[in-house]
Amino acid sequence: MYPQDFNPKTLRYEEIGDAVGLGSFACVAKIKDRDLVIKMPFDHYKHHMAVEKSAYERVGHHPFILRYYHEAEVIFKGGTSSGLVLQYHHAGTLENSLNNPDYVDQRSG
User: Cα Rg for the chain, rounded, in angstroms?
Assistant: First the structure.
């Protein structure tokens, strides 16, 4: 499934692309050349990732929720950080999707 030089559970900083989302607790960045992102919490909110990971694992695969793959470690100069590897949503952020008039019509129809 993955090329031999790509280890999805241990990512090098060079494999992480641009940020695609920024929230109060975490940053989401695209994994280069993949339809995946990694959600990495800010230092003071690392405990939130365990709760979110647990929720994804309980829900499993659902057509209206981003697919969760696994937790991964990111190695960069000076240390490591961990995050959740998720499906990349091409349509943008959750906020943009919820504000999309077509999505509102589908939910109320």
Answer: 15
CB atoms closer than 10 angstroms to residue 20: 14
Statement: 10-108 belongs to CATH 3.30.200.20: yes
Where along the chain do its domains lie? 10-108
Mean pLDDT for 70-80 is 90
- How confident is the model at residue 104, as a pLDDT? 53
Residue 40 pLDDT > 90: yes
Tokens of 71: 């937790």
Give Cα separations from 87 to 9, 30, 69, 79 (angstroms): 14, 10, 8, 25
Q: H/E element holding 40?
A: strand 36-41
CA–CA gap between residue 50 and residue 63 (Å, rounded): 22
User: In this structure, are residues 71 and 82 in contact, taking their beta carbons and an 8 Å threshold?
Assistant: yes
In this prediction, residue 62 carries a pLDDT of 86
